[in-house]
Q: What sequence folds into this?
């Protein structure tokens, strides 16, 4: 069964900490995405990557950065965590052969709380 | 501005009845519309999609209807089962500059199935 694995289900960090959220997919997908999910706001795109070492800003990139050194791994970095970054973070991947939104495989999410 | 939204945040349905989940969108340039299901503790899963040049598409127990005149999308679930209890998201995709496709998610409707 194909998978997108997020390293942590729950995470509690302090304000100002540098936080790494890891995502690994085993489907050889070219495209990877990071979303955050907040009540009443739906899923909002933070960053995405269509190739190794490539990254593009999504709708809400401020306060975040990403790294994609290998095809299967896409990391989301909170340089200095703040309480307004408390959220559910979802990673997704897809093949370039499919249209956007299709064949999106999501991870189970990381619920991050910044205190 | 653009938006993809849902009319009802929570929908309670008796087991065996049909469910209808609605979604409004505002962008006429959308290429595809997609419905996702998100069960508790899991990432969203693709259910069914529809192209913008179609009015109706059927899957197993699910039907998606698209009314472009009023920019309305609906998901119908026949003979609703307890396993259908989840949050349902609509999403629309459209081509943007740079050759990418942008996916915009709705805020979600929670479907509660009453045994």
A:
């Amino acid at each position: 069964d194909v998978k997108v694995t997020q390293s942590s289900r729950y995470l509690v960090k302090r304000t100002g900490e540098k936080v790494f959220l890891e995502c690994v997919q085993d489907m050889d997908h070219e495209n990877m995405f990071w979303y955050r999910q907040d009540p009443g706001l739906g899923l909002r795109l933070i960053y995405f990557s269509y190739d190794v070492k490539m990254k593009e800003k999504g709708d809400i990139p401020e306060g975040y950065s990403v790294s994609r050194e290998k095809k299967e791994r896409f990391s989301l970095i909170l340089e200095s965590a703040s309480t307004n970054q408390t959220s559910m973070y979802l990673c997704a991947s897809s093949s370039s052969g499919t249209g956007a939104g299709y064949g999106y495989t999501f991870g189970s999410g990381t619920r991050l709380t910044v205190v | 501005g653009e938006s993809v939204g849902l009319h009802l945040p929570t929908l309670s349905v008796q087991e065996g009845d049909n469910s209808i989940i609605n979604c409004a969108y505002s962008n006429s340039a959308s290429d595809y519309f997609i419905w996702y299901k998100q069960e508790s503790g899991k990432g969203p899963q693709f259910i069914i999609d529809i192209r913008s040049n179609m009015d109706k598409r059927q899957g197993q127990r699910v039907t998606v209807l698209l009314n472009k005149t009023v920019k309305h999308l609906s998901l119908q679930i026949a003979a609703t089962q307890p396993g259908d209890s989840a949050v349902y998201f609509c999403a629309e995709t459209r081509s943007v500059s740079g050759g990418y496709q942008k996916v915009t998610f709705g805020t979600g409707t929670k479907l509660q199935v009453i045994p």
